[in-house]
Amino acid sequence: MNAIPVIAIFDxxxxxxxxxxxxxxxxxxFEKTARFIETVDEDCFACENLQSLxxxxxxxxxxxxxLKEFTVKAVNFSAYGASFVYLxxxxxxxxxxxxxxxxxxxxxxxxxYSTYGGELKFSTETASPILGNLNSGLQLYRIKHEKPxxxxxxxxxxxxxxxxxxxxxxxxxxDLTSIGCHTALWDFANDRYHEWVQREGLALKLAPVxxxxxxxPALFPGNNYKVGVGLHDSSAALIxxxxxxxxxxxxxxxxxxxxxxxPFNQSPLTADELNKDCLFYIQYxxxxxxxxxxxxxxxxxxxxxxxxxxxxxxxxxxxxLPFDPEVMVKLKKRNRHAPxxxxxKESVFAxxxxxxxxxxxxxxxQLALDLVNLQVESTKLVLTxxxxxxxxxxxxxxxxxxxxxxxxxxxxxxETFAASMAQASAVGAALSIHKExxxxxxxxxxxxxxxxxxxxxxxx
Length: 460
What we know:
Elements: E1 4-12, E2 17-22, E3 28-34, E4 39-40, E5 46-47, H1 50-65, E6 70-79, E7 84-87, H2 106-115, H3 119-126, H4 136-146, H5 148-153, E8 156-159, H6 160-169, E9 174-175, H7 176-179, E10 186-187, E11 192-193, H8 195-199, E12 209-210, E13 215-217, E14 226-228, E15 231-232, H9 233-244, E16 249-254, E17 258-262, H10 271-275, E18 278-282, E19 288-294, H11 296-310, H12 325-334, H13 360-383, E20 390-395, H14 401-410, E21 415-420, H15 424-432, H16 434-437, E22 448-452
Parallel strand pairs: 1-6, 6-14, 6-15, 9-12, 16-20, 20-21
Antiparallel strand pairs: 1-2, 2-3, 4-5, 7-8, 10-11, 13-14, 16-17, 17-19, 18-19, 21-22
Helix pairs in contact: 9-15, 11-13, 13-14
C-alpha cells in the first residue's frame, strides 16, 4: 500500500491545540487535540505554557513521521494573534509568552499615545483600536520601557505562528497576516511599519517579512518536507473563500467573537468606525480586509444559560431549535413600537424580563432576533458602498436555523449562505502553500453551502 501524501497543520488556539493531516483533496485523514495547563508570568498572570507547546510540536511530528500510511510533504501553522515569543541570539525564549488579556499599564499607554499623536490619529493610521496588550506592538514597547535589560537580550520578537515555523526551519521571519492584526505596528496608508517602530528601535527586533506562500527547508529531522512561515488564524480562515469565490462577498466568522470580514473594502477607517470596533486585517496576498467585531458568541452563551435556568430547561435544547415563523410574527407585533437602537456593542436581551415570554422557545427566538439586529448593524459598517452580493456565515451561528433565517431576511438583497467547512483556519494554512506540496488542482468542493432565502423568513 502506497503512503498517502499529506500536509500537517498545527492549528493553535488559546484553549485547544490541534494537529491535522490533510490529503491532496483537503480531506482530514488524521487529527489530534491537546490542551495544556497554563503557567504564569513574573506577575503571576496566567499565560501559555511555551515549553509544553514547543515539546508538543516536536513529539507530534515525530509520531506522524513514524506512521507508515502517510508521507508528510509539508508542515504549516495557524495560531492566535497578538502574541509575541521573544528569542535571544541562540533562538532561546527569554520571556514568557505574555497573555494578551493581561491589563496594560494606563500610565504607559498614556505616554505612548501622547508621544505619537493621540489615540484617534494613531489608531486611524494603524487600523488598531485601543486594545492594550491585544495591540502586540505595545507589548514590545512595554518591555523596552519597563525591562530594558530584557529588551537588549531580545534578538527577534516573533508572532506565535512564526515562532512555531522557526522551531522546524530554524529561520526567522515575520508575516503580514500577523503584523496586520490590530498590532499597532503597521502604517496602512503607506503599507509599511509605522514610524514609531523605527523611532523606538523595534524594527531591529522584527524579522524580515516573508510572503505567505513561502516555504522553507526543514531543519527538524524527517523526510524531505517543506515548512510554511505560519499565518494568523482569522486571516487563514478567510483563504478558502478567497480561493473559491471571485465575486465580492463578506464572511461573517462566528464564534466567541463574530467578525465581519470584507476583503473587497479597503476604504480608510473613519473615527466613527474605529469607535464601533472596526479594524483592518491583512489577507495572505497582502490586501487589506476591513472588519467589524462583536462579542456576540459570548453573549449568546450567557443568555442561553439564563433562559435555561428561568424555564428549567437544559441549554442543549437550543442548539437545534427550528425556526418558527409564527413565533416571529408574534414577537414582531410585540416589538412594533420599540425604538431602533442603532449601533450598540451588546444586545438589549440581557435587560429583558424573561417572565414576559410564554415559554423558553419564544424567549430564545427573541434572543436570536436581538443578536441578529446587532449583527446587521455591525456588518453594515463594512458592507456599505461595496459591491458585495453574497454573505457567508461560518462557525457556530451558521448551524443555527433561527439566526440564519433572520439574517437572510435582514439582507434580502444579498444572498445569504451558511458555510460548512471542517477546520477553516487549518485548511487556509494548507492552501497558502498548496503549490509546494500538492500536485493536484485545488478542489472546488472544500466549502459546503446552504442557501437561506429571505422570502422563507418573515420580513422584520
